[in-house]
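Q: How would the structure tokens look for this protein?
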Amino acid sequence: MISDNDLYTLAVFLGCLSMLLIIVYHFLEVNAIEEDTSSTTTKTEGQSRTGKGELKGEKGPVAAAGPGQGQERGKFQGGLRA
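A: Here is the predicted structure in token form.
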């Protein structure tokens, strides 16, 4: 029969192994090279498979404003006041 000490050792080993595998998975996912599959993507419900969608009723894709576009840089734009 398995003792309490053996169960404890097994639980610690499997917990450490699972955390190590999670870290390795995230490392590989972040550093993966993305392939360009734009020729094979199809749009469904206004969004392509790559996640770059268009709003319905708009003329084209929506782009985010870069720094300094649409507002003055460095100017306080609101927030909590004490």
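The mean pLDDT is 74.

Residues 4-30 form the longest helix (27 residues).

Upvote if useful.
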